[in-house]
Amino acid sequence: MRTGAAGETLSDAELVRRAQEGDELALEVLVERHQDAAFRVALSLVGDTDLAQDVVQDAFLKAFRALGGFRGEAAFRTWLLTITANAARGALRKQGRRREASLDAVGPVASTEVDPEESAVVGDEAARARAMLVDLPEKQRLAVQLRIDEGLSFREIGEVIGSTEGAARVNYFHGIHRLRERMER
Amino acid sequence: MNMRCEFARELIPDLVGGRLAAEEAARVGSHLETCDACRAEADFVRLLFASRPVAPRELVSRVREAVRAGEGSARRPWWGLAAAAVAVLALGIGVASRGATEATAPVPGFVAEGTAVNVWFADDGMIAGAPALDGLSDDALQALLDELGSGGTGGTA
Ligand SMILES: [Zn+2]
C-alpha cells in the first residue's frame, strides 16, 4: 500500500498508520502538512529562523523515530508540537550554555516570512502585534500562538505546554489581554 | 438568543482562522455585530493571525533528506526499532542477558541498518549501548518495552 498524490486527503491517523508500516510517502505528507505549525512553535520559542528550522528537523526526526510507539491517544499534530516545543527548549538550553553570560539575547522575530496570501494585508500594526508576542511569558505566548495560529483546543494546548485545560485557557486569555493592553499604548 | 461573550471569545480564533462550520460562524459573527468589546478582540486576533509566519520553503526538503538519511534502504519501519532502542537505553537496562534467551534470527533489515542507527544515536550520546540490541528481534524488543512500560523500573525482578 503506497500513499500517492491522494495522500493529501488522508487523515493524520491514516497517514500515521501507513507510516508505521513503512510508507515513506505518508511521512512526507505528514511533514508537508505540519511543518508550518511546527515551525511557528519552534520560532515562538527560540526566536530565530535558522535555529527554528534546526528544531523542526530535529522534532520530525524524533517523532518519526518514536512513531512505532505512537498509540494515537493524542492527535499526531498535538504530539508533534509537544515534541517540537521540547526540542526548542533543549536547543535554547544548549544555546544558553554556549552563550553563557552573553547579553546577546535571542534575536527578534521581525524578519520572518509571512504567509504570502496574507502578506498583502499585513501592515505595520499586524507586525507590531506579532512582535509583541515575544514579551509574553512562555506559556502565555504558546497558548496564544497555538490557539490563534493553529486552532488547537485548550485541552490540546494543555498537552503541549504541560498544563491542564483550565490553565491553558487562563494562559491564553491573560496573554491576549496583555497584548491588547500593550497594543493600545 | 444572544451568544454570551465568554463563548464568543473562545471561538474568535476559530472564526478568524476560518475553522468554524457555517452555522457557528454565523452565531459568533452576529454576536460581534452587537458587541463592541468582542469585536475589538476579534480585530486584534485577526491582526495576529494575519501575521503568522510560515516555514521557509527549503524546510520540507531539509526534513525529507534528513528522514531519508536515517532510513537507509530498510524495508521495515526503522523508527520502531530505533524508538525501542532509545527507550531501552534510556532506562539503562541490561539488554544482553534477556536478549540471550529471546533473540531469534537476526533481522535482515536491521543489521543492514546498523550505520543508520548509529547516526541516530550519535546525536543522543547513546551510541555505546546500541550494539547490544543487534541480536534482538522486533518482537523481543517490543516484549521488553511492554514489560518496562507496565512493570516499573527494574526489569530484573
Ligand atoms: Zn461580547
Could you please describe the fold and organization of this structure?
The complex is a heterodimer of chains A (185) and B (157). Chain A has helices at residues 12-20, 24-46, 49-65, 76-98, 116-119, 124-132, 138-148, 154-161, 165-183. Chain A has 185 residues and is mainly alpha-helical. Chain A folds into two domains: 1-98, Rna Polymerase Sigma Factor, Chain: A (Orthogonal Bundle), CATH 1.10.1740.10; 113-185, Arc Repressor Mutant, subunit A, CATH 1.10.10. In chain A, helix 7 crosses helix 9 (165-183) and helix 8 (154-161) crosses helix 9 (165-183). The model of chain A is unreliable at 103-111 (pLDDT under 50). Chain B is an all-alpha fold. Chain B has two domains: 5-50, no CATH class; 77-149. Chain B has nine helices and no strands. In chain B, helix 1 (5-16) packs across helix 2 (22-34), helix 1 (5-16) packs parallel to helix 3 (36-50) and helix 5 (78-90) crosses helix 9. The interface between A and B is large, with 53 and 45 residues.
Secondary-structure class of chain B: mainly alpha
Spell out the helices and strands of chain A N to C: HHHHHHHHH
- The percentage helix of chain B is 55-70%
Query: What fraction of the residues of chain B are assigned to beta strands by DSSP?
Result: under 5%
List keywords for this structure.
heterodimer; A: 185 residues; mainly alpha; Rna Polymerase Sigma Factor, Chain: A; Arc Repressor Mutant, subunit A; B: 157 residues; 66% helix; 0% strand; elongated; binds zinc ion
Task: Give me the secondary-structure topology.
The complex is a heterodimer of chains A (185) and B (157).
Chain A: H1 12-20, H2 24-46, H3 49-65, H4 76-98, H5 116-119, H6 124-132, H7 138-148, H8 154-161, H9 165-183
Helix pairs in contact in A: 1-2, 2-3, 2-4, 2-7, 3-4, 4-8, 7-8, 7-9, 8-9
Chain B: H1 5-16, H2 22-34, H3 36-50, H4 59-71, H5 78-90, H6 95-102, H7 108-112, H8 114-124, H9 138-151
Helix pairs in contact in B: 1-2, 1-3, 2-3, 5-9
Bound molecules: zinc ion.
Residues 5, 8, 31, 35, 37-38 of chain B line the site of zinc ion.
